[in-house]
Amino acid sequence: MKPTITGQPLARIDGHAKVTGAARYSAEVQISGVAYGVLVTSACARGRILAIETNDAEREPGVLAVITPKNALRLPDTKVPENDRVVQVLQDDRIVYSNQPVALVVAETLEGAMHAALLVKVHEEKEPATVRLDDEIKNAFEPEPQSASGKKSADQVRGDPARGLREAAMRIDETYQTPYETHNPLEPHATTAVWNGPDRLTVYDATQGVFGVRKKLAKMFALPTGNVRVLTKFVGGGFGCKGTPWSHVILAALAAKQVGRPVKLVLTRPQMFGMVGGRPLTRQRLSVGANKQGKLTALRHESVSTTSRFDDFLEPAASVSRHSYACENMATSHRLVRLDIATPTYMRAPGEATGGFALESAIDELAHALKMDPLALRLASYAETDPTEDKPFSSKSLRKCYAEGARRFGWAWNKRSPARADGMLVGVGMATSSYPAYFSKAEALARMLPDGTALVTSGAVDLGGGTYTVMSQVAADAIGLPMDRVRFDLGDSEMPEAPRSGGSQTAASCASAVLLAGRALRDKLVRMAVADAGSPLLGARPDEVLIENGRMTANGRTDSFADVVKRAGGAPVEERARAGPDEARKKWSLHSFGAQFVEVLVDPDLGHVRVKRLVGVFAGGRILNARLARSQLMGGMVWGIGMALHEETVYDEKIGRIMTRDLADYHVPAHADVQVIEPYFIEEEDVHVDPAGVKGIGEIGITGTAAAIANAVFNATGKRVRSLPITPDKLL
Ligand code: MOS
């Protein structure tokens, strides 16, 4: 059946609930008898807890417990599942980063718990520590292949990069740096934990994936997985930091067990700097060579990024160079450096956002050195097939993105003639965007009720991007119902399993499962009708039945889904389906692509940069809802402005503590920073990527943006800033 609802720019179906406050977030669930937990965190970056004075706190009225490593319930298992982050849950006296949980106050009221937490005195024994990359870079090591980079090895070589560089007519060899950053979703991390008896746990958690939370809690409390239920109906932004359950999730459950009451634990904004991850610092060396025509002869991308002493998170920054440009001689490598920091984690477009800044800056530098239009240089090495994997792209519309972006923006390369307008320096820049198209195993259940409405479920999470809405659209088309007769529900680990909402994979994975389940349900209802003596369709061939708005028609006769269900006894008719990558998919290189063009104004006296206009054109497969997709891309592009100009998690290097611990010190773009943002799509029909034809657009919007802005700043000022963010001091 031809889709009619999928793709339509419908408004979010949960929008009304959100703006009226009817949508309950994880900290807002109403549980009777709930107690409130407030964390106390470490000061030093490395050391030992010598003693914790809890008497004053314990004497406060309403305080139920002050849980410290001394009296905390022992967890049966402190190991975390594979590919999950290590947590600090009051099981020992070690301090492994500043702002680590060292005690948890539980009280009758939030105010009581907050006050008592201030009365807890922690005595620490400090040990030498460092958060400076340069102190430890000599100990950089090659990380294990990680799932975030698709289990690819840290190093890859193709051809002879050294020779390619020697033979180049022009070379660029520069080092770029991206800072520590912190996700800062508007909704803080929050967990409400409720035990029903000694071995059944229900958790309401601000997470990107209910199944990951269930798995970790079940493991650490040694419970059967089925005894843990995790619910997440609404999330106020995730961006990666809610991708894995951190210490506070385990601690909420531990405290609830220990005090015998449901416990609600919400992190304060300052507590979200460290213990729930952040983007690691990267230092990337790019060695790029080209011939006189601008065709690349060598591309070497070496990235070093930071991780904690006790866990490995790899920001796969060099990976972007493996898929971007046609080049015979390429080498990419990743190294990790351990510091006395909390473990970093995925942050919006991990790898591509940071790596794209370095790669796309270096390409711009090369174009400038060759006096070439940077767009022409990119086209001279356009990759028709994946240069590293030697595979065709399942679809690639980057050429169209370049052309459409250039047209919309009015890109006319002028070999850098410095321009001024109203006393401001004016510059333009561009960069390529790209992000892999991830697709993971997902299941969905589609159920037809006797009233002719359908309920479709899959345990995904809606981070705010519109999962409720687009899945309803896909389900409506797949089953053959109008939107108002389909309800899609998510965010419950009792539902069919869906992957974590990370890696921009939810639309692709979940929509494929919903599509298959919806079609299976529709086909089942048709089979029931044509075999049903009570149906006007008795004896019709299933393939001649037309379906529209819940009605089945063949040979001029009609039956309805509702009547089929009723005649069969009235019990809901249901089908389940599973979608996931298969062998055939491995033949393809699977990526979204895009191009961003930007105009900046730079104040010559103050060094202040304003992004006047940002145009992005993206090709991400099928677009399920143009309005929501546009918002997703716009959000990504705004993040790109933040990455370019504002965001930086700053440590006090003497004490190893993050100093930018609120939104006054940690800068993100505000309204005045965001002027004109224009996201566009190139629609693609991709039959290889997944059954839904979706590549995912959650993250690509931030990729390339920072480079495009840095390139425009260079165009305006002649200053090449290779270390983000581009703050005024770097331009004066
Ligand atoms: Mo996103 S950074 O993959 O959760």
Description of the structure:
Helix content is 24%, strand content 25%. With 732 residues, it is of the alpha+beta class. The protein has three domains: 35-128 and 183-272, Aldehyde Oxidoreductase, domain 4 (2-Layer Sandwich); 138-181 and 278-438 and 587-730, Aldehyde oxidase/xanthine dehydrogenase, molybdopterin binding domain (Aldehyde Oxidoreductase, domain 4, 2-Layer Sandwich), CATH 3.30.365.10; 440-580, Aldehyde Oxidoreductase, domain 4. The chain has a seven-stranded mixed β-sheet with strand order 3-5-1-12-9-10-11, with helices on both faces. A five-stranded mixed β-sheet has the order 7-15-14-13-8. The radius of gyration is 27 Å and the shape is globular. The termini are far apart.
What would CATH call the architecture of the largest domain? Answer: 2-Layer Sandwich
Q: Number of DSSP strands?
A: 31
Question: How many domain units?
Answer: 3
Bound molecules: dioxothiomolybdenum(VI) ion
Q: Please report which band the strand proportion falls in: under 5%, 5-15%, 15-25%, 25-35%, 35-45% or over 45%.
A: 15-25%
Which class of the largest domain in CATH terms? Alpha Beta
Strand order in the largest sheet: 3-5-1-12-9-10-11
Mean pLDDT: 96
Fraction of residues in helices? 10-25%
Q: How would you characterize the largest beta sheet?
A: 7 strands, mixed
Cα-based radius of gyration, to the nearest Å: 27 Å
CATH fold descriptor of the largest domain = Aldehyde Oxidoreductase, domain 4
Judging from the principal axes of the Cα atoms, what is the shape? globular
* Weakly predicted, low-confidence segments: none
Please state the structural category.
alpha+beta
